[in-house]
Design brief:
Elements (H helix, E strand, L loop, with lengths): L5 H12 L13 H4 L7 E6 L4 E5 L5 E2 L4 H13 L20 H5 L10 H14 L3 H13 L4 E2 L1 H10 L1 H12 L7 H12 L1 E3 L1 H7 L19 H14 L5 H7 L4 E3 L4 E6 L3 E6 L10 H14 L5
Antiparallel strand pairs: 1-2, 1-8, 3-5, 4-5, 6-7, 7-8
Helix pairs in contact: 1-13, 3-5, 3-11, 5-8, 5-9, 6-10, 7-9, 8-9, 11-12
The structure holds 6-diazenyl-5-OXO-L-norleucine (DON).
């Protein structure tokens, strides 16, 4: 493997995207996200040799939001196995992350596990799989990154208080017989997973198993097997950034998962995991400076899955 000075690369990227931080709009649907200063940027990287690099505000915690969908999917793959796919598809949606339209045509089976409807279906599977799924989610994420991770209860309560569309999605799926558990119980899991609070370093570490064929970055024990891990990466590439997934593949060429807190995780299998964060979002709900930072990373290093 050619050696790249990642620390220098990330520092250069942080400087270059500075004018873009503050571009875009922070998510405003709940006060805890609306009051975040848009003009912030952080980036962190872990490679398969254990090298780490950071730049900017890589230690500032933010709301991981939809990035959590990757971790709940991993947990459901561990707990449910192949049966998970009886209720969830694997196609990009081409619609916004909280869209209801396809659910009607497709009888309550969500297009993929990385849109809201799919993540709600995953949460339902986790509730069925046994006691305290919320604790299991925190335990998995904490184990993956090596720090104790918690929910921001203010964010979780606001998600529940304003989550009318998610409540509609869950009820709609329930009406098709595609949720086994009570809508409130399933949504309590979903609203909490959105409210996990982490920083860039923790997220880059937590995503590291995705570039190590499913193996834990410290213990080397399998979190998932190779096939399951490939499948998560494939879903992130095709569905991880909602209806901007094509644009991400075109401009960046790495499996990515974004959240409306402004975070994006990115994976280069067999090589490295990255997390970027900048709260200003573009029209598709993805971080403007974060997306540009990933594009610059690929330009500067020549690394890509393609
Ligand atoms: O469930 C929701 O709609 C919000 N908690 C946003 C989740 C999210 O991050 C979607 N996308 N980027």
């Amino acid at each position: 493997m050619e050696s790249i000075d990642f620390q220098r690369t990330l520092a250069a990227i942080a400087e270059e995207v500075q004018p873009l931080t503050g571009a875009g709009k922070v998510a405003t649907y709940i006060p805890a996200l609306a009051r975040v200063d848009a003009a912030q940027f952080g980036i962190a990287l872990c490679d398969v040799d254990g090298q780490e690099a950071t730049a900017g505000s890589a230690e500032v915690a933010f709301s991981i939001q939809s990035i959590s969908k990757v971790f709940t999917l991993a947990l459901a793959m561990q707990q449910v196995g192949e049966k998970l796919w009886e209720r969830i598809g694997r196609e990009p949606s081409g619609d916004p992350f909280n869209s209801l339209v396809q659910l009607e045509h497709e009888q309550g089976v969500p297009r993929n596990p990385l849109i809201n409807a799919g993540a709600i279906a995953v949460a339902d599977r986790l509730v069925s799989a046994g006691a305290d799924p919320k604790a299991k989610i925190l335990s998995l994420i904490s184990d993956l990154c090596g720090d104790p991770i918690t929910f921001d209860e203010e964010v979780a309560a606001s998600e529940a208080a304003t989550g009318f569309r998610n409540i509609a999605v869950a009820n709609f799926m329930k009406s098709f017989g595609k949720l086994d558990n009570a809508v409130e119980t399933v949504l309590d899991v979903y609203f909490h997973q959105c409210a996990v609070s982490m920083n860039c370093i923790q997220l880059a570490r937590a995503a590291a198993f995705l570039c190590r064929d499913g193996r834990h970055r410290v213990s080397n024990k399998p979190v998932l097997n190779e096939r399951q891990t490939r499948r998560i990466n494939a879903l992130m590439l095709t569905c991880g950034t909602y209806d901007a997934a094509g644009e991400f593949a075109f401009r960046i060429g790495m499996p990515c998962k974004s959240g409306v807190g402004g975070g994006i995780i990115a994976v280069l299998p067999d090589r490295l995991s990255l997390c970027v964060w900048s709260p200003g979002l573009g029209a598709s709900g993805n971080s403007v400076a974060g997306m540009r930072a990933l594009e610059l990373f690929v330009e500067k290093t020549g690394l890509s899955v393609f």
